[in-house]
Amino acid sequence: MYYFASLIHEAVRLRQKGMPVSGVASAVGLLYEDPRTGDQIQQALQDPFFPLTLYAKHHLGACERGETGVARAGQDLALLSRMFLRVRRDIDRYFENREITCVDLNGDATQAVNTGDWCSLCGVCCQLSGTIPDPPETVRYPGYWYTYIAGDGPLVQRFCPFLFELPLQGLFFCAVHHVKPLTCLAYGKENCEENHPGMANR
Ligand code: SF4
Ligand code: SF4
């Protein structure tokens, strides 16, 4: 296994156990020639809500294609980190951090999350290349959100960039849950049971 891939697997393992990832995050960041890119990756890896498990699931497999694949996976991590940090910052800037989703984005990964609803927060339905970026009538997104939601950004998206993770609980949540696109809002229990049988809570 390539060193890059082994570091990512280790970071996933540590995050899922609630252990510090600063050492591994630093080691991954140092693999990048450009220090700013390395710093961004390090910052993203240490963020409790960064969807590292999804990155590993959907992008790390490229490493099996040899050095070209490792370069691709590394580039994808750089892009995803930049996109994540940008979305995270603008959720703060344009919306009330605590109001916009079902998770306290000022909190940490150990916080309790209400999963009493039918949706189990498995995140499966948001692992798609894009959807229609149609916000609720009273909401305006920062311009680039339309591109990210549609999947027209710089990354070949395997999951929505607004899908964040709670690694300790093994849950995924929409970072813009209360202002999510109407297309996403309309996705109800019946759609879930039809498209992803067995994923919803009973
Ligand atoms: S697949 Fe169903 S249970 Fe899972 S996140 Fe989507 S709507 Fe919720
Ligand atoms: S905006 Fe939210 S609900 Fe819609 S696909 Fe992205 S993560 Fe899922």
How would you describe this structure to a colleague?
The chain has 202 residues and is mainly alpha-helical. It folds into two domains: 3-94, no CATH class; 124-195, no CATH class. It contains eight helices and two strands; from the N terminus they run ααααααββαα. The protein has a two-stranded antiparallel ribbon with strand order 1-2. Helix 3 (35-46) packs across helix 5 (67-94). The chain starts with a helix and ends in a 7-residue tail after the last helix. The model has no long low-confidence stretch (mean pLDDT 94). The structure holds iron/sulfur cluster (2 copies). The site of one iron/sulfur cluster (SF4) has 11 residues, from loops.
